[in-house]
Design brief:
The chain has one helix at 96-104; strands spanning 7-10, 15-17, 28-33, 36-37, 46-49, 53-56, 65-75, 78-91. It is mainly beta and 111 residues long. The chain has a single domain, classed as Immunoglobulins (Immunoglobulin-like, Sandwich). The strands form two sheets. A five-stranded mixed beta sheet has the order 1-8-7-3-4, with no helix packed on it. The protein has a three-stranded antiparallel beta sheet with strand order 2-6-5, with no helix packed on it. β3 and β4 (36-37) form a beta hairpin. The longest helix has 9 residues, at 96-104. The termini are far apart.
Amino acid sequence: MVKPDNAHANVGSPFTFKCSVYGIPHPEVKWLKNGEEIDTSDTNIFQLVGGQNLKISQLIKEDDGTYQCMASNFVEDVKETIEAAAELIVLDEGRLQSFLSSTMGALHIGC
């Protein structure tokens, strides 16, 4: 499993969490937000893209939280599940640049 990355994004923008899983048979993937399963059948808000990645069509502040990618498959009637989590912080529109500047500080590269 390649886990999703923690991220910061602006209100109103689309966002996609990437989660790559492999297995035979191919695992079933579902996503959770703060421990509750996300309904990806309503494609106006959340979409499962490529069977693994979670796309949020337009971020709102309430999309802040911890997102988990859970992958499961059955091998000889035994269910195996793995999971990985990432944090999403949704910032007010136009605040991403100032947030990154204040948290990252100056970058100096010497030769």
